[in-house]
Specification:
It is built from no helices and ten strands. By secondary structure, it is mainly beta. Strands 2, 5, 8, 9 and 10 form a five-stranded mixed sheet that branches.
Length: 144
């Protein structure tokens, strides 16, 4: 069983300040899990093999924000996969503000989804975890 946690360095940011989120994928099960540990952020509209982390951001107005970055990361390589033992985790920190326009003052709702449909060329007897997993919802506030 895997868990995805989303955490921000702080709750409140000034407009224009980088908003950094940390995504932690943890094996909370009793068996090892082979996972795509690259944790690259991409648009929810790219083909499944390029979708590792997608982020849903809802503006203070209640409207979902569009993913505004252009990402060209390609398929995961064999070295992007990691065998997580029970209790182990991998993490990545990204500036959410590089992917979304966080200009309106107020509270933003953020949630990430981990996706994996890929597998390495050699699995060495371990099943690759495939599917989707949602993080906890998080709230950040943007001030002028």
């Amino acid at each position: 069983m895997l868990d995805l946690n989303l955490d921000f360095a702080k709750d409140t940011y000034r407009a224009g300040e980088p908003v950094e989120g940390t995504f932690t994928l943890r094996n909370s099960g009793a068996e090892p899990a082979l996972v795509n540990a690259r944790l690259g952020i991409n648009s929810p509209y790219v083909p499944a093999e390029f979708r590792e982390l997608t982020v849903n951001v809802v503006a203070p107005s209640g409207d979902p924000l569009n993913f505004v970055a252009r990402v060209n990361m390609g398929s995961p390589a064999d070295q992007d996969f990691k065998l997580l033992q029970p209790g182990e985790s991998v993490a990545g920190t990204f500036a959410i503000s590089d992917f979304f326009e966080l200009e309106q003052p107020g509270a933003y709702q953020v949630q990430a989804t981990y996706h994996n449909q890929s597998e390495p060329s050699h699995v060495n007897g371990h099943a690759v975890w495939k599917g989707e997993l949602k993080s906890n919802p998080a709230t950040i506030t943007i001030q002028r």
